[in-house]
């Protein structure tokens, strides 16, 4: 009973109010509004019509597909590349502090600023990336203007910006591994690669799991960066759920926009919760 | 031994070259372009400016009747008040959630975890704001930013609080200290390190946020820094010098923050990510 007195319910009341009013309530009522045609003032129930429109219109359906591609390639790329970078940074490299700071800084720059900068650098004729490619003897790439390459170009920038935090998490995980393991392995004649695969990877499993989940969640929410770079285009080649929600809102189809929001919830629920179970996230940390 | 030293030296050289090429050049590009005149900037090359044009910055300031000053004021106000609110709400809420182990705290913990995974339901949030009469107001925007950052912030506090022994509170309670004073005088001061982390992480996130102000705070009066640059993008597609002067202006506060708090930011992110 004493516990209930010291940790009075009053402590959590403000949190409950703010979180419920501006997060939980909108989330719950989105289920209803996704089945209406509405304009904030009045709503007319229309059943599952919005969802049917969603899955039968190619431009909308592409958003679902792209969302999954962003999540898969974005988080896969970050998980692997950041690990390699962290393994490099924890070896006996003297300039690691410089490299670490340089890799980390993009995390503090707003996605809009990053998007504008890379759009200029990826310019089809004048951009410095194409200049470099030409200098190396390749042919120019129309990074953001071609429906075949636009999505992957945006994902590349997503990786550029997302590597920082993942690398930092890995570095923390790797440096906390007891050096005795490495010494023992070295005595037994294990080479660098064997030590990396058989010691580093298994012993920083919890960091790997954290990075996978964070990057998946991050890629699902990606809006700012992609919006600054392509605005969903060319056509709807780089659209994801977040941009579709915005586009339908801007076009005045509020019910359809809300349905898109609910579809995003469902995708995340279907993928993240099992993924979390699979990775056994909470328990291991 | 000699061979290994050479290997590490090569690693250093290649690592630095790659870092400069991939991570430093974009920033150099931003800075150089912002100092060129219009014609030169539009070539989008990485050359040094033939003449330094600092007046680009002045022009960005004067644009739209000093819109950027208003934007800075709004963004700082938004980030400042939201973070203050988050500290109060989440330190107390985290205290409750970490210390109590009953049904209520169990359910709340699950709901907060859900918030960590799920994005906001955007249009219904606008509807709620309208019903409360705070749509398109700073108050509404602050409450939404706070609500969306609650899950992450509470997780930081819960993670840190699990290392603080409960004996302190029990002793204080037996001595007749009220729960509120107990928290205010004993627990909250002990949370200082994690509060510092919360301030930096949430302030950066909210200052850099583009999506939420785009939806919940429209209107010329309410413009935030990230929106100014977005408006610029439409207006100055052919004046990259001005566009990048604006990019530099909104990036500099973060650079200063980074130079001063580098270690704190990095440690905080690790703590937050690993514990959350």
Question: What does this molecule look like?
Answer:
The complex is a heterodimer of chains A (285) and B (276). Chain A has one domain (58-284): MetI-like (MetI-like fold), CATH 1.10.3720. Chain A is built from 15 helices and 2 strands. Chain A has helices at residues 2-6, 13-33, 49-56, 58-89, 96-104, 111-121, 128-135, 150-175, 179-187, 192-203, 205-221, 224-229, 241-250, 254-279, 281-284, and strands at residues 36-38, 43-45. In chain A, strands 1-2 form a two-stranded antiparallel sheet. The model of chain A has no long low-confidence stretch (mean pLDDT 88). Chain B has helices at residues 2-34, 38-41, 55-99, 103-117, 122-131, 138-161, 167-174, 179-190, 192-208, 211-216, 225-235, 240-275. Chains A and B meet through helix 1, helix 2, helix 5, helix 6 and helix 8 of A and helix 1, helix 3, helix 4, helix 5 and helix 6 of B.
Q: So how many helices of chain A?
A: 15
Shape of chain A: globular
CATH class of chain A: Mainly Alpha
Find the CATH topology of chain A: MetI-like fold
Secondary-structure-based class of chain A equals: mainly alpha
For the largest beta-sheet of chain A, the strand count, sense and barrel status come to: 2 strands, antiparallel
Main sheet attributes: strand count, strand direction, barrel closure of chain B:
none
| Approximate shape of chain B | globular
SSE series of chain A: HHEEHHHHHHHHHHHHH
Low-confidence stretches of chain A: none
The fold-level CATH name of chain B is MetI-like fold
In angstroms, what is the radius of gyration of chain A?
23 Å
Strand segment count of chain B: 0
Helix content of chain B: over 70%
Going by CATH, the homologous superfamily of chain B would be: MetI-like
Calculate Rg of chain B over CA atoms: 24 Å
CATH architecture field of chain A: Orthogonal Bundle
Number of domains of chain B: 1
